[in-house]
């Protein structure tokens, strides 16, 4: 049954009955980044057939819809961040939309509504495209820009698993060839620098860079928005589709960076702290793209010393490979930014100023883009919400949205425990209060972005790797061990994350559910050795429902409130959930509490301090309706 439409009122989501709603959802799914059926990064590819691929079958074949959606509903989720990509829609060429895929995507959305899910559409990307180590943009965008992606690896213009991995080796992890969680380095490398700078700031920095009479920025953004509109048209008649994400974790390219000065430490002029690994400048990227060899300092840590320092030097593009398709194709050289003959930087502020005025990335580029996204989808259906997100570093460090954001925007920024995500380790013997406190501080900074907009906050992504601690849980599972003990570290990590979000009143969509996931350190979610799926086919053995660490995410919460939710808390050590609601008797529908089987059996005790309230239970839902305004205290206990 469709849950109907959803609106916002201040910082809250409001359903058709006027109740405040908590969206507790999941990203569906991780393998939507790659074609179906054999597009995973664990399969060798040279991307030669990029125009003929198909994404029909992502997130799962249509005949499996009820299996997967029923499972997710049974775990208590009520919202899906449903992934698609620009490539999935427009892989064949500019303006050539995949009608079969659009029909398939609309069917998945429709069935999600029948299972009671609200859906918002995420046009996903990571480091631009599959050809640059991620996903998102179609391969023809490189042809339009005059770039040859078949040369990227030889020129060190992108770090791509399919080029670096030795698929014949029995070693699942090859840290010397393709270090785990290394795909993000591509944001600093030449191919991403060129593409993101063109996408967001082509008119500002390269006004003469035109393709078929259009500036490169207008060409790229116009095509992206056109693909988004095609999806919007396909799902416009489904009321439970509540909006669109702007663009997943957008890159900045070279916007705001000095041309040749190296950022080895954070400075007031460049406050972003450097990351471990090679340190690129825009000039390095331009030179390598043009076929010049460069030497880059590499930052790292020595022993236990805090901070980063130069630990080595890396030579890039030693073969002198040019990724531009012709000798005069480099638009940045034509714009007088640098000179290839001697590698000279001609305008140090080329990406920081236009006509003597310092550019502001957010005001000059992000705000107009956000408005264009909202205008595009709302030209199809006016009530859609905009789930907006910034570069994750900006969101995490308290950098808020720019002025001029569209109305009915949702703060959909992402948050991860970076230490757990990058190292894929978690100590079950941690100090939980200390960790919970850190999570509260970090998530509070993100919530402030929504409060500044007077908008709801939904954490669009968070989650944990399930191959924690060297895949220990998978080893124990393969040896025949079952039960909750093998997921103890995962459950504790997730529980602390949800504890913090409950305390702050945040909605969320966990990353992720991947239908094709395997307990294999090479495969995982089918993309760059990531493995954050709460489900795996390998967990279906022995009567299991395929879930991993289910008690970590299938938790009690107030799904809908007859008024305003003022507090909710789950004491998972005691099996006690409590909540407070400021009741508005004018709201005719009852409050609803999700009561998961993973924590509460049929005999769980319902707590309510209003003796005149109507209390009922249907399956995994407790309904409570009050007749007068009051602060209602209610909950569920194992007794």
UniProtKB/TrEMBL annotation:
Q: Start and end of every Glycoside hydrolase family 5 C-terminal domain?
A: 555-622
Cite the Glycoside hydrolase family domain residue spans from the record: 71-252
Q: Name one Pfam family in it.
A: Glyco_hydro_5_C
Superkingdom of the source?
Bacteria
The answer to keyword Zinc applying to this record is: no
UniProtKB keywords = Glycosidase, Hydrolase
The keyword Hydrolase appears for this protein: yes
Q: Family assignment?
A: Belongs to the glycosyl hydrolase 5 (cellulase A) family.
Question: What is the protein named?
Answer: Cellulase family glycosylhydrolase
